[in-house]
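Budget justification note: compute hours in this period were largely spent on complex prediction jobs such as the one shown. Inputs:
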Amino acid sequence: MAERGAIPLGRDPSARFLPWLMAFMVFVCTLALAGTLALTHVIVRWDRSLATTLTVQIPVNANGGREALLNEALRVVRDTPGIAGASAVSEQRMAALLAPWLGTDEVVRELPLPGLIDVDIGNRSELDMTRLRQRLAGVAPGITVDDHGQWLGRLLTLGRAVQVTTASIALLVLLATVGVVAYTARTGVAVHRRVIELLHLMGARDTFVAGQFARQAGHSGLIGGAAGVAVAAVALMAIGLLGARIDGRLLPAAGLGLLDWAVLLLLPLAGALIARATAWLTVMRTLARLP
Amino acid sequence: MVRFENVGMRYGLGPEVLHDISFTLPQGSFHFLVGPSGAGKSSLLKLLYLAERPSRGLVHIAGHDVSGLPRKQLYRVRRRIGIVFQDFRLIPHLSAFDNVALAMRIVGEKEEKVRRHATELLGWVGLGDRLDALPATLSGGEQQRVAIARAVIGRPSLLLADEPTGNVDDAIAMRLMYLFEEMNKAGTTVVVATHNDNLVGRFPHPPLRIVDGRLAGHG
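Corresponding output:
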């Protein structure tokens, strides 16, 4: 004598299709959200690491000898207020940085390379960039100070554009889900009009009828969403494994944390709640138009 | 309990099928609704169980003027009405028990009470051993008893039955009529629509006679 729903909603062709559709929607949404989260972490990491550093570059063809100019520039930088630390980039390290692109052949090691100084500017509050540039220009013309602002700005713009795109995909998926659930609910009301009329004649309020549709839609959303997020999780882990094989120096690390996974695993619940609320509102509005 | 004043009714923009119907059914009364096929019995019943609204005139049921009652408020009156449909209108995928229990679940009764009452009532109509049976596996008479149990489980103030004896033999018809009389003695106003003149003749209850959409006699 288990209680069953008064309206046989699970047997409709449209309702049977709903869990599959919800699985697909949640799958796409999970990938889009995972992409957004991973990209956000990368952007934050770049922003944090590059906003507190400068690079001083002594050109290859500067007069006065590369080593002497490098040491003089290093002294000037260290004497400037607001500098937390500075160190010259060794030729070995530069060769290592270039190795992925140029290789390690003897001819590469003989290439003329500019002198580079890594500068840590801490919280940047005391540093006068104009004065630093003027003092370095006094060491040798052509010495440049790169605060990564332009590069980082472009990178952030690109990153945010990708974020907006993935968020738009998630929003479109959400709107499509709402549309499909609303269509399914409206179809259900039409298909089961006779039972609904009987329920009304027995004294059922619209909320009772809408509750039946909401429960069914929520159930479909949860089952389909759980399947969708499970498949997406497998896909993300596969992408993560493939990503781990690529040389880490070429691409920034873009992983998901525990909190990110928790958010992603909540998507089926969110899908179920959206489906439930959509079905409820659709049925209530449809019934309100009845005579 | 029920009061009709100059009630007219039409379906959509069609012709009027009921004309100037006026009558009063006191609380606790028992009436037959009789008349030839197509006379308007079903339309009058639809007005009584609020499946339709009058095109004109006033309909008062259980203290409410249902002619102008907002749609959202109709459920209050409907919960005081029990209906036995001619075609039973049982929900096919629900068991006999769930069909009867539905009437209580709709009004939000506690599940423990629902189970107790539905089981008791189905036992009372002789279906205590068919609680889990689906309507399709029940005979016409059994389906009708489920429909009656569903109609009376909420202890309605007004019980409406549309041709309740149409699908059963005389013995069961008489049992059903005695069941309705029991309900009536408990204070329920009962209206039974029937073609069965023999049945009407056996009981002393006044008939409402409909002919060509007009009330031809109100005993």
